[in-house]
Specification:
The protein has 46 helices and 45 strands. It has a 3-stranded antiparallel beta sheet, covered by helices on one side. A 3-stranded antiparallel beta sheet has the order 4-6-5, covered by helices on one side. A 3-stranded antiparallel beta sheet has the order 7-9-8. The longest helix is centred in the last third of the chain and has 29 residues. The two termini are 43 Å apart. Keywords: Acetylation, Cholesterol metabolism, Coiled coil, Cytoplasm, HDL, Lipid metabolism, Lipid transport, Nucleus, Phosphoprotein, Repeat, RNA-binding, Steroid metabolism, Sterol metabolism, Transport.
Length: 1287
């Protein structure tokens, strides 16, 4: 084996520094020997392949440190015989309960299970995982996949605890090992039988292990020996050495109770022979010592602890030296008698030791005021640590409230410690002082400040300690300790703070809680502004959960008053802007209030500066809530009502009712007034604000209904003024509609006959069964009686049968039984059952309250009569109008079918050239029935005969079904929906403005007026605009279009006035000054005069022309403003001065701060030379003559000041070594100059080709070895093992 050269740190340093000199005349082979081999310098990692036994792997740098790692994952295989398998279904192997159990075991234990079936149908389970996971999995497998058996084993009761082990560990280990469940009887159970359950194999193993434990315990014995406590020290020996020797000699365990336990019993356990031997030895010692001599001596109680020593070590030491036992009375005894027991010749020596130990420690005290104690101790005990480190056996004790310090320790050390402590006390008394000041406890927490900020600042500033008593002490005294001067200053400052706080005022502002969040603002930004405005005032808001209106202000009296006024003004503004008014608007008009894309509501909000909230679409509420300033809310209310009035025939009437009756007319939660509004066709009744004293009540709605509501209101008011009585009764909610009757007919009869008003609950009320009766006592009694009779009859459920021809069945059950649901809802929840489809029966069963069944039966007969009387009428309307007639989502057709109780079928849509666009796939064509997109498909057969022009096309025919008079009325309603077209003449040049950007203008008008507006194509040059829509919409649309034309004409005239232009001639050198920094000056002129100012482009011929565009008078004013600036600039002069270029950077400053400061201070302009300028020292100063002179003087002064620094720095630089000269890197550790570095070279490197020998280290100055990015490199002839070089 060839020798291997190892690269050491020294040889590496030599190679790197080039200290190894080349031998003159040496061959290249010599150089190659000097270079280390690559494998030696960078040893490879050891190979994984195992070497044959007996061969030794070659040593290298890695192998010596690598230790084999043992796998933490183990694999075990368990077998379950066929007869012991719990799940024996062979056909379901890998499925069923067995597979589920295995998956559950894997999840529970974390082990991996693989099952396989043996030829004898036994089960093999391979379990992989960590050891404890595998053992747990094995236990689970045995208990859940193997049939279980049980057995009992009897062992003596006293051996049970050895089976259980400490904390049950032995039992758990046994269960895991044998995969069984072992049940041991409780200690209070006399039974000695242990029950084992598991597999047969596991049972045998567990029984064997338990019997082994018991057999082992049978060999052991326990012996208890009673010996007086005073002789125990002789048995244990000093430091328990004697008892330890006995245990080692005999092998038995000897348990002697410790001195602190008052027991005489010594317990010996072990093998019988060992125990007998140990007992004999103990008794022998006792026999020897029981006649020992004793002497009693008196030792001060305070010195007993020194005789005992730490952890009793001193007593053990005396016992070891003299063989004498020293008995000390217990700490709770007042006795001072110490008894010594032992051999007579040794008692004298022991007595000497006792007295020596008792007198080895001294107790003394040092007088020191209690307030100085913590200064003596020092921060974290630093001062005391210096003493205790020198004298570690001395104990120094401080007692709170006592003016002394107790010292305790060895007599020889006490004198030195006492003198040191007295010196410290004397020093502190001479230079420390304290003072107590009285401050009201309610100011204490303010003196402390948030997080102790105030008190910590005072402590740090004056180097004092301040003790403020806790709140529970209720003490006025604050104690200040420290340097006398610091104490005086701190007490003065604290008293000033307290005095200022006494001048403080706390004021409670009553602000409604609903305003609190608005005052605080999102993320607290608004209250932060208030606190910044009044920094001395503390503002506390109550917790939101407290529902309190009290906001507390605390601070100096004047500041609190100012803050209070400011916040009152804030609240007043909020109250003014928080005025709210509710406007009742019929639900069908809400969409018109909103407008297309919210245009109408947005416009009203912006123009009136109010917040307008509309109820949700699915809500039954008709109230629109307006919030803002009172006058703004009224303006918005008027505008919203105007929209409603314009859209419908709405009448408004005012009724005078005494204000004292308003609350009783409105009723609890508005129940009374709501019942009147619902009964009178949904009119809106508006009562004035409570407490206003206004008697006027406003009723708004259709004229007839308003009159009706007025009569009811006045009648009810009259009743209230005479005598009003109220009664309540309950009925199931499903009966309410039947009690009310269709159109309120039933309840109206009751009211007309009795004169009482009956109020039913609304959907949002909690008690849905409660019905309220209001009126005179007699009227209420009669109405209540009638209603109770009705309700009683409704509770009487009956079943009835009626005949309905099968042809009509489909009408009742169509649309998921909608007709039947309506009947059930209207007639007290009557259940109507039709025969099954295909049963060919006409019997229909009705079940419910007797009156409800009769009423429902009557209604169904009416429907059947209508169905029998049905006719079909055709209405011809061109197909192009059908979409318009249907309305959005079929709303118009749905309204006609509902109002006239007819069925309407639209024909299939036929698309073709000139018929609305390209042909649509036939599969997509569907009949539009009653405004619903999913109606029945009308099958249209192609005509086989020639089409008669007089006969209408099928695609234009709309079919209506129902009673004749209703169908005719519906046809009129359909024809009224056919749009008509009118033409308006608008100048062609305005068309593009009417259309607007991307058609926004024309879309807005079409949405607003609900029409279609057609603007002619630009190439036609036509002035005619067509408007198509419903007749009642056309006039409004035409007026709106003409109004828009007027606006556009006025805008055109305004544009012509705004396009006035004038030019002003200004020398280009003044242009930057007119523009200003970042365009500030010119922007100001543009904004102030509302003009556009254009400066010439770089390539423009007229570089001195500035163009101004706008209204003539404003353009002239802007020109005058520019001329004024030019006149001012022309008065300025420019002077060049010479400033040394070396100080320019300092004058300019970081980011130009210095130069900007000079220019702002002297109102001049400074221009420094650009890099490469002919004269780098020339600086131009421009401004008014007197200001230029002052600026030049200032600049020259700065130059003189900065040049002194420059010259000083340059003189220092002459003494410094140039960077390129001999630097530290060219010197070795000994300070000698190094030779030229050869670099680091290795041989047999992977990048060297076979023929290539060791060469010199690469030349760092070579462009081939170290190419620059982008630099051309000559092609290299040498091949490289890494492949061709790519640059």
């Amino acid at each position: 084996m060839s020798s291997v050269a190892v690269l050491t740190q020294e040889s590496f340093n030599e190679h790197r520094s080039g200290l190894v000199a080349e031998k003159a005349g040496g061959s290249s082979a010599a150089g190659e020997e000097e270079a280390p081999a690559y494998k030696d310098a960078f040893p490879p990692l050891p190979e994984k392949a195992a070497s044959p036994e007996g061969t030794q792997e070659p040593a290298n740098a890695w192998t010596s440190k690598i230790r084999p790692l043992k796998s933490s994952v183990i694999t075990q295989v368990f077998h379950v015989p066929l007869e012991e398998r719990k799940y024996k279904d062979i056909n379901q192997f890998g499925e069923g309960d067995q597979a589920k159990v295995c998956v559950d075991i894997m999840h529970k234990t974390g082990a991996h299970l693989e099952l396989s079936m043996a030829k004898d149908q036994g089960l093999s389970i391979m379990v992989s995982g960590k050891l404890d996971a595998v053992m747990k999995a094995r236990k689970e497998i045995v208990s859940r996949l193997q049939t279980q058996a049980s057995a009992t084993v009897a062992i003596p009761k006293e051996h049970h605890r050895f089976v259980i082990g400490k904390n049950g560990e032995k039992l758990q280990e046994l269960e895991l090992k044998t995969a069984t469940k072992i049940q041991i009887p409780r200690p209070d159970d006399p039974s000695n039988h242990i029950k084992i359950s598991g597999t047969k194999e596991g049972l045998e193993k567990a029984k064997h292990e338990i019997l082994l434990i018991s057999a082992e315990q049978d060999k052991r014995a326990v012996e208890r020996v009673n010996i007086d406590k005073v002789f125990h020290p002789f048995i244990t020996g000093a430091y328990n050495k004697l008892v330890a020797d006995m245990m080692q000699e005999t092998g038995a365990r000897i348990n002697v109770p410790p001195p602190s336990v008052n027991k005489t019993e010594i317990v010996i356990t072990g093998e019988k022979e060992q125990v007998a031997l140990a007992v004999a030895m103990i008794k022998k010692i006792y026999e020897e010592k029981k006649n020992a001599t004793t002497i009693a001596v008196e030792v001060k109680k305070s010195q007993h602890k020194y005789v005992i020593g730490p952890k009793g070590n001193t007593l053990q030491e005396i016992l070891e030296k003299t063989g004498v036992s020293v008995e000390i009375p217990p700490p709770d005894s007042s006795s001072e008698t110490v008894i010594l027991r032992g051999e007579p010749d040794r008692l004298g020596q022991a007595l000497t030791e006792v007295y020596a130990k008792a007198n080895s420690y001294t107790v003394s005290s040092v007088d020191a005021p209690s307030w100085l104690h913590r200064f003596i101790i020092g921060k974290k005990g630093q001062n005391l640590a210096k003493i205790t480190q020198q004298m570690p056996k001395v104990h120094i004790e401080f007692t709170e409230g006592e003016d002394k310090i107790t010292l305790e320790g060895p007599t020889k050390d006490m004198q030195m410690v006492q003198s040191q402590m007295e010196a410290i006390v004397t020093d502190l008394v001479s230079r420390m002082d304290y003072m107590e000041i009285s401050v009201d406890p309610r100011f204490h927490r303010h003196l402390i400040g948030k997080g102790g900020a105030n008190i910590n600042r005072i402590k740090d500033l004056h180097k004092v300690s301040v003790r403020i008593p806790p709140d529970n002490e209720k003490s006025h005294l604050i104690r200040i300790e420290g340097d006398p001067q610091g104490v005086q200053e701190a007490s003065k400052e604290l008293l000033e703070l307290a005095s200022r706080m006494e001048n403080e005022r706390t004021k409670d502002l009553l602000i409604e809680q609903r305003f609190h969040r608005a005052i605080i603002g999102q993320k607290g930004e608004k209250i932060k502004d208030v606190r910044d405005k009044f920094p001395e005032v503390i503002i506390n808001f109550p917790d939101p959960a407290a529902k309190s209106d009290v906001v507390q202000l605390r601070g100096p009296r004047n500041e609190v008053e100012k803050c209070s006024k400011f916040m009152d003004k804030m609240v007043a503004d909020m109250v003014e802007n928080g005025f709210s008014v509710s406007v009742p608007i019929f639900k069908q008009f809400h969409k018109n209030i909103i407008g297309k894309g919210g245009a109408n509501i947005k416009k009203i909000r912006e123009e009136t500066n109010t917040r307008i909230d509309l109820p949700a679409e699915n809500s039954n509420s008709e109230m629109i809530i307006i919030t803002g300033k009172k006058e703004n809310c009224e303006a918005a209310r008027v505008r919203i009502l105007a929209i409603q009035k314009e859209l419908a025939n709405i009448t408004e009437m005012e009724v005078s009712i005494p204000s004292k009756l308003h609350n009783s007319l409105i009723g609890s939660k508005g129940r009374f007034v709501r019942s009147i509004m619902e009964e009178c066709g949904g009119v809106h009744i508006h009562f004035p604000t409570e407490g206003s004293g206004v008697d006027t009540v406003t009723i708004r709605g259709p004229a007839e209904e308003v009159e009706k509501a007025k009569k009811q209101l006045l009648s009810l008011a009259q009743e209230k003024q005479t005598k009003s009585h109220t009664a309540e009764l309950k009925a199931k909610p499903e009966y309410h509609k039947f009690l009310i009757g269709k159109g309120g007919g039933n309840i109206r009869k009751v009211r007309d006959s009795t004169g009482a008003r009956i109020i039913f609950p609304t959907a949002d009320e909690e008690d849905q069964e409660l019905i309220t009766v209001v009126g005179t006592e007699e009227a209420v009694r009669e109405a209540q009686k009638e209603l109770e009779e009705l309700i009683k009859s409704l509770d009487n459920v009956v079943e009835d049968v009626m005949n309905v021809e099968p042809k009509h069945h489909r009408y009742f059950v169509a649309r998921r039984g909608q007709v039947l649901r309506d009947i059930a809802e209207e007639y007290g929840g009557v259940m109507v059952s039709f025969p099954r489809s295909g049963a060919n029966s006409d019997k229909v069963t009705l079940k419910g309250a007797k009156d409800c069944v009769e009423a429902a039966k009557k209604r169904m007969l009416e429907i059947i009569e209508d169905l029998d009387a049905q006719v079909t009428i055709e209405c011809v309307i061109p197909q192009r109008f059908h979409r318009s007639i249907m309305g959005p989502k079929g709303s118009r057709i749905q309204a006609i079918t509902r109002d006239h109780n007819v069925q309407i079928k639209f024909p299939e849509r036929v698309d073709g050239p000139g018929k609305g666009g390209p042909a649509a796939p036939l599969a997509e064509a569907a009949v539009q029935e009653n405004g619903e997109a999913n109606g029945e498909v009308l099958v249209v057969e192609e005509p086989t005969t020639p089409v008669d022009p007089a006969v209408p096309k099928k695609c234009d025919v709309i079919v209506l079904s129902g009673r004749k008079e209703r169908c005719e009325a519906a046809v009129e309603a359909l024809q009224a929906l056919v749009p008509v077209t009118t033409e308006v003449e608008v100048p062609f040049e305005l068309h593009r403005y009417i259309i607007g950007q991307k058609g926004s203008g024309i879309r807005k008008m079409m949405d607003e007026f609900e029409v279609n507006i057609q603007v002619p194509a630009p190439e036609l040059q036509s002035d005619i605009i067509s408007i198509t829509g419903l007749a009642n919409h056309l006039d409004r649309a035409k007026e709106g279009l003409l109004e828009r034309v007027k606006e556009l004409t006025a805008e055109q005239e305004d544009r012509s006035l705004r396009s006035f232009k004038l030019t002003i001639t200004v020398d280009p050198k003044y242009h930057p000054k007119i523009i200003g920094r970042k365009g500030a000056i010119i922007t100001n002129i543009r904004t102030e005069h509302d003009v556009n100012i254009q400066f010439p482009d770089k390539n423009d011929d007229n570089q001195d022309q500035i163009t101004i565009t706008g209204y003539e008078h404003k353009a002239t004013a802007a020109k005058d403003a520019i001329q004024a600036i030019v006149d001012e600039l022309e008065e300025m002069i420019s002077e060049d001065i010479t400033l040394d270029a070396r100080v320019h950077a300092r004058i300019i400053g970081a980011r130009g701060k210095g130069i900007r400061k000079i220019m702002d201070e002297f109102k001049v302009d400074l221009r420094f030379p650009q890099p490469g300028a002919a004269d780098p020292n020339q600086v131009s100063v421009t401004g008014r003559p007197e200001l230029v002179d002052e600026a030049i003087d200032h600049l020259l002064n700065l130059e003189e000041e900065y040049m002194a620094d420059v010259i000083e720095n340059e003189s220092k630089m002459t003494y410094m070594k140039p960077l390129g000269d001999r630097g530290a890197s060219s010197m070795d550790d000994g300070g000698r100059e190094r030779g030229p570095s050869k670099g680091f070279v290795v041989r047999e490197a992977p990048w060297q080709t076979g023929s290539e020998k060791v060469r010199e280290a690469p030349d760092m100055s070579s462009s081939e070895d170290f190419p620059s990015f982008g630099a051309p490199v000559a092609a290299a002839n040498k091949a490289s093992p890494w492949g061709p070089k790519r640059f």
